[in-house]
Amino acid sequence: MTTTTDVGPPHAEVSSARVLARTCAAEWTRLWTVRATWLFLVAGAVVMVGIAAAAGSGAASDPEAAGDPAWVAAEFTTLPGQFAFLALALTLVTSDYATGGIVPTLQWTTRRTVLLVARSIVAVTVATAAAVLLALAAVLTALTASRGVLVLPADGAGVLATVALVVAAGSLLGVGLGFLLRSTAGVLVSVFLVMLVLPIMLPNLPLEWGDDVARLLPGTGAVHLLVGEIDGMTTSSSVSVLLVWASAALLLGWLRLVRTDANT
Prior knowledge:
Helix content is 73%, strand content 0%. By secondary structure, the protein is an all-alpha fold.
């Protein structure tokens, strides 16, 4: 006599959207339970608000600054402050490789593309939101410190959108390089090179092609969008440079994530 056991209907596969939502929630929780996140945010706040306070105080004693828009504080404080937010984004990826946590992470989220998308969403959201809020805080700080010398015209609010674009693109670049290089030191060095060192160094070298190469770097595009002092660049070309670098880094990071072992 044969006994048949009813095991019930097969379990339906969980949709990618549901896995993505769960992974985003897990990444969000992990981000805020890491001390480095708070250190980077504090560093960004100190840099941006501190520089804005100094600039506002300087404007208060400068008769020529009367009537200048306080929105400028958001732009020039984001240039140095963005590195705190980019470091926050890239360490969200590389810290997992440094501690070996990437192995259980991939066991929990086996769909690697979903993991990359989730980490990108969380990193960009937090970094960009923090940058915009601190840029606004820098504007208000400069306005207050100027004792009425600076003004706050309504048409300058678009500056915050520019800050958001620059930091979001830089964060995506950091995330992509994080998955590609898997080393915090390596990614930090790479980000500093393309966002700060090379854009400053190349135009000052006795090279005919130095300026042309510098205009192809994301750091140059960020400077042009924030302060608009780069010859030969436009808003469109600057945005294109930032997006191309971010997209290329994400593509290369995704290829390594899905094609190689987590420990290699």
